[in-house]
Design goal:
D-Maltodextrin-Binding Protein, domain 2; nine-stranded mixed sheet; globular; alpha/beta; 17 strands
Length: 330
């Protein structure tokens, strides 16, 4: 169905249904850790808030062991006391976090011990990596209040929009709908591309000229509704939206409201929805059975997997496979 017909649909999202996942009055999580901890990690913007909170809740022998560094902030981070770990470039996103982890592991300096990832990438790596799920997220699209973009779209509609079908988005240079993506390397970007049926290679090659990943000359960060205008849409983590709406995370939604995909209410983490994903912590495969990696991340009895209430407080769903170590890069 073309959007000229879709625009006749009711534009309404019921947020209250999703609020059962929230715990009010908790405040925002601490950013970069104070002091050094045995397990330093970087990467995904989507999971940095919940991982910061988990880092302050999970202990091994009474000591906090996880140091989670934000995706954005100062240009550099210092993760350990050694000279090699001073002023490392801050990785922004799942892909950049994985790359940074591999780089530091291959240097053998102990500066990074895990990375956060909101997407699964089992491409071969040296050393091998294990993607350990710990929560469930949903991804949908967001539009601004008063937008001309319907709040009910199918995956087929979204494919047409992100493929720059003139029947949906109009023609250059004045597209009537402007699809946005977060910065390259974002796990949400790669997950959303797969959901709507386009590839990063085609996006990078300029095959879809209606897509933009910048606003005002700056890269678009994940889950920031302030980039939207009345003719644009952008992928948005449902967990992030819930946590921002409750004040658990800083609210940068602007006037963003979530759209429904294939008729499924967007603020419910419905495992039958079109765009549900596991989110992960990535560790060296060789450390799966080694403390403190094993204590913090591995198995249903691990420190993180025991924090279901805290995970839900940040808008995520509990993952029945939390701590599973079967997803490896070989």
């Amino acid at each position: 169905m073309k959007l000229i017909a879709k625009r006749q649909l009711a534009k309404c999202v019921t947020v209250a249904a999703g609020l059962g996942l929230l715990v009010a009055g908790t405040g925002t999580a601490q950013a970069d850790p104070a002091g050094f901890r045995p397990l330093a990690g970087v990467g995904s913007d989507t999971t940095q808030g919940v991982m910061n909170a988990l880092a302050n809740a999970v202990t091994v022998n009474g000591q906090k062991v996880i140091g989670s560094y934000d995706a954005v902030g100062s240009p550099t981070i210092t993760t350990k006391a050694g000279t090699a770990c001073q002023n490392l470039a801050r990785p922004n996103g799942s892909g950049a976090g994985r790359t940074a982890l591999l780089n530091e592991l291959n240097k053998g300096n102990g500066c990074l011990d895990f990375s956060r990832s909101s997407s699964l990438n089992l491409a071969a790596s040296t050393p091998g990596l294990t993607y350990i799920p710990f929560a469930v997220d949903g991804v949908t699209y967001a539009v601004s209040a008063g937008s001309s973009v319907p709040l009910d779209l199918s995956v087929a509609d979204l494919h047409a929009i992100y493929s720059c079908d003139p029947g949906y988005v109009g023609t250059a240079p004045n597209y009537s709908i402007r699809p946005l993506l977060p910065q390259a390397g974002s796990g949400t970007r790669s997950f959303w591309e797969a959901t709507v049926g386009i590839t990063e290679a085609d996006v990078a090659a300029g095959r879809y000229p209606c897509i933009s990943d910048t606003k005002g000359g700056k890269k678009i960060e994940e889950h920031d509704g302030r980039v939207l205008d009345t003719a644009s849409l952008v992928p948005f983590s449902i967990a992030q939206y819930i946590a921002q709406s409750s004040g658990t995370l800083a609210d940068i939604r602007g006037t963003a409201q979530l759209g429904n995909v294939n008729g499924v209410p967007s603020v419910l983490l419905n495992t039958g929805a079109a765009a549900v994903r596991d989110v992960y912590n990535v560790i060296p495969t060789g450390k799966v059975g080694v403390s403190p990696w094993s204590d913090a991340f591995v198995g249903g009895s691990s420190g993180i997997c025991q924090q279901t209430a805290l995970i839900k407080q940040y808008g995520f769903g509990a993952n029945a496979n939390c701590g599973d170590t079967s997803r490896t890069t070989g």
